[in-house]
Write a structure and sequence with these properties.
The complex is a heterodimer of chains A (193) and B (80). Chain A has 193 residues and is an alpha+beta fold. In chain A, 37% of the residues lie in helices and 32% in strands. With 80 residues, chain B is mainly α. Chain B has one domain: Non-ribosomal Peptide Synthetase Peptidyl Carrier Protein, Chain A, CATH 1.10.1200. Classes of the chains: A alpha+beta (193), B mainly alpha (80).
């Protein structure tokens, strides 16, 4: 949906996605190093803009661009969606960063901050293709435990994959946040030079 | 610092962060070790800077994704 949430971090910020970002989305999603575990897309700008139009109308869907504070250069994408307003639970995903980006830790910190702060959720979960082992490991490294396996959860083209679901609520976030914040801060010092 | 001493220090950091028991002579890389994820990569780099007494630039960080590349980057710093 159209939203106005921006979250400032240490070297990066999250801001709402807009039509001007369509080419960037296509660039990331068509990168063969990044798209092994993504739903196939046509790669056409017009289709991406049509997807945006539907997204703008969809409630409970917050799509963000991760960009550098110093240059506004785009580094990645991330979203919170499928929000159950009654229970205050949502999913985060559509997470993709340009190759070589050092924004992963800060991006995770920012999306949790947006979820538990600005959006006001009480719990957040993330489902990762089980074969995407480095991302599964990332969530474990964030302190979210080993996760729960969901058999045959994803169908990508003709391929079916298990998912690993990691969940975090406000109490766990309060415990895990300081370490992520510290790592994001020391990375930011490096980025800022 | 000679090559073997450097390798030992780098392996020590990798083993500490990744909870592995890598031995001299092995050639670990991020591609082969799924638990060498984006968060662990940051911890490895800052562990290396502390252990080796070096500072790496942002441009160097992303490329330091294997023992060999880490050692090459460190040797380049020592030689400079």
């Amino acid at each position: 949906m159209r939203h106005s949430i921006s979250v400032e971090g240490f070297a990066f910020r999250l801001r709402p996605i807009a039509d001007d970002d369509a080419a960037f989305v296509l660039q990331l999603r068509s990168d063969s190093n990044l798209n092994e575990f993504l739903h196939p897309s046509s790669g056409r700008l017009a289709d991406q803009l049509d997807w945006f139009q539907a997204y703008y109308q969809r409630p409970g869907d917050y799509y963000f661009v991760l960009e550098r504070q110093s240059t506004s250069e785009r580094e990645g994408l991330v979203a919170i969606y499928d929000i159950d307003e009654h229970q205050g639970i949502g999913e985060w995903g559509r997470w993709i960063l340009r190759p070589g980006s050092l924004g992963a830790v800060e991006c995770a910190w920012l999306i949790y901050t947006a979820a538990f702060g600005e959006i006001g959720l009480t719990e957040l979960y993330c489902r990762t293709v089980a074969d995407n082992r480095s991302v599964v490991s990332f969530h474990e490294s964030c302190g979210l435990g080993a996760g729960k396996r969901l058999k045959g959860h994803f169908t990508l083209g003709s391929r079916v994959f298990d998912a690993i679901e990691h969940r975090i609520d406000r109490a766990l976030w309060a415990e895990r946040s300081p370490r992520l914040k510290k790592l994001a801060q020391i990375t930011a010092r490096k980025i800022r030079g | 610092m000679n090559q073997l001493e450097l390798e030992a220090k780098v392996l020590s950091v990798l083993n500490s962060v990744l909870h592995l028991d890598l031995q001299s002579g092995c050639r670990p890389s991020r591609q082969d070790l799924p638990n060498w994820d984006s968060l662990k990569h940051i911890e490895i780099i800052f562990g290396l800077e502390e252990e080796l007494g070096l500072e790496f630039t942002e441009d160097e960080l992303a490329g330091m994704d294997s023992l060999e590349k880490i050692m090459a980057a460190a040797q380049g710093k020592y030689a400079a």
